[in-house]
Amino acid sequence: xxxxxxxxxxxxxxxxxxxxxxxxxxxxxxxxxxxxxxxxxxxxxxxxxxxxxxxxxxxxxxxxxxxxxxxxxxxxxxxxxxxxxxxxxxxxxxxxxxxxxxxx
Length: 104
What we know:
single chain, two-stranded antiparallel sheet, globular, 104 residues
């Protein structure tokens, strides 16, 4: 599979695997407000949600991509569905007060 370097077309589902990059666009064209590495995939088919380690602070949160996000596939090797796990890479627990989750 070739790496995706731009947003998915509107109305399509995002698919990712461990090691991919999530990019969240800003409100201004061409501006990236957040990016992070997918460190955990919860579903065998690669559908959301994902555990993402955000570049700006290294925190790992449970993330459901919205229409402003896309996945950049950083590997070129085909992936067998047998190699994808359906469990998070680390236990995830809510953090008090901010609605985010963190890995332990």
